[in-house]
Amino acid sequence: MKTTLLFLLLAFIAIDAIAQSDPDFNQPVELSGDFLNLNLNTGSGVYKGNFIAKQGSMKFEGNEIKVKQKANKELDNIIALGSPVKFKKKNYSSGEIVSGSAKKITYDANKLLVILEGEAEITTDLGKSFRSQIITYGLTSGEIEAKGNSQRRVQIIIPPNSARKSTPIVK
Fold first, then answer.
1. pTM for the predicted model, two decimal places
2. Contact 38, 45 (CB under 8 A)
3. What is the spatial distance between Cα 5 and Cα 124, in angstroms, rounded to a whole number?
4. What is the mean pLDDT of residues 126-139?
5. Do β-strands 58-69 and 35-39 pair in parallel, antiparallel, or remain unpaired?
6. I need a labelling partner for 87 at 20 to 30 A (CA). Which of 16, 25, 127, 132 fits?
């Protein structure tokens, strides 16, 4: 019993630490689009036509979005489709703005992951870029996992360090 209570306390502390380090997850999820079909009993729905989903600095834009809620009505996941779907979020640990695009983007609200599939690309405002068939991005950890295939290998571009730039020699 004490072990279970300790585990629950530690889990709540970890969730609270994530929320404090990334204020986006303390914000409501806002959805808009041209058409909505929603089942209030199941919490599942589809937005179509120029949809936008936002939560704090995180934003998804595309043609169609599928939303699924848990039994307690908290967000479970968002699946966004488009040609392409666009994604943007501030990484509060590094200060970078992370942008992405793909044919399909899944936001897993439980694991705080974004999975980009089909001509996936993630870039940062500091010049880093990742291209692959599938990219998984950890929203709070900043971890990226990319998987390629025979048509599209994993490509990473890391810009030169500005401190390494050569300084002109003054005579």
1. 0.79
2. yes
3. 41
4. 94
5. unpaired
6. 16
